[in-house]
Amino acid sequence: MAKRAVRRRARKVLGEDPVAVVWCEVAKPIPVPPKDVHRAAGNGRLKSRHHWLLYVMGTLFFFVVVPLLLIDKMTRLLEPRRTPRRSRSSSAPSDSRDEPGGGIFDGDWHLAAGQALLRWYGHSPSPKRLVLLTRDRVCVAASPRRRLSPTRADDFRIVAEYPCTEVHVEGEADQPRGFATFRLRFADGSWLEVGRLAEPDDADHFLRTIGG
């Protein structure tokens, strides 16, 4: 379960003991919203800020891997072409469309879930958010640090708070660890799905609480 520092901080920011807490993330890339909607929401970040090492790896990929791929492609183009045979078993292109909102929200940027998603990364450079449940509230907290330990973070603050009449938390217990998700379903019918639940014990307890 969450360490004493996390529990102590949660009690302080909530003014009461939480029923359940769990660190989570938006597990997929946020779709690109319409420009006017993004602008109206403050033009906030739509991606998390990556560690500097990722930028170094990206630079190495661009200057080392990409040239090798281009050389390989040119070599193949210079080779004698062979007419490929068409396979009868080849399937036709799928006409299935992506799930609305990329599978992470209902797809309507004007509703509560879309507005919450537009502001998700503006609260902290870290992608992790702490969802706290009380008897009558659902709160979302963030730490100002870029990197944090879910078991030791003691500087997070509430960035969004909803009465239980406005948000219902949905999720199933006994989900595979590492793949568990849950949804925040808002009163206007919109929903936001999060995953990458940190701390397995907290995640299990959280899912049992909302599933009960």
Sequence-ordered SSE layout with sheet pairings:
Elements (H helix, E strand, L loop, with lengths): L3 H11 L5 E5 L10 H6 L11 H27 L33 H7 L10 E5 L3 E6 L14 E7 L3 E4 L11 E5 L4 E4 L5 H12 L1
Describe this structure as you would to a colleague.
The strands form two sheets. A four-stranded antiparallel beta sheet has the order 1-2-3-4. Strands 5-6-7 form a three-stranded antiparallel beta sheet. 30% of the residues lie in helices and 17% in strands. A hairpin with a 3-residue loop joins β2 and β3 (137-142). It is an alpha+beta fold and 212 residues long. It has helices at 4-14, 35-40, 52-78, 112-118, 200-211; strands at residues 20-24, 129-133, 137-142, 157-163, 167-170, 182-186, 191-194. It is built from five helices and seven strands. The longest helix is centred in the N-terminal third of the chain and has 27 residues, at 52-78.
Keywords:
7 strands; alpha+beta; 4-stranded antiparallel sheet; 5 helices
Number of helices: 5
**pLDDT < 50 runs, ≥5 residues:** 50-56, 83-97
Question: Averaging pLDDT over every residue, what do you get?
Answer: 83
Largest sheet: 4 strands, antiparallel
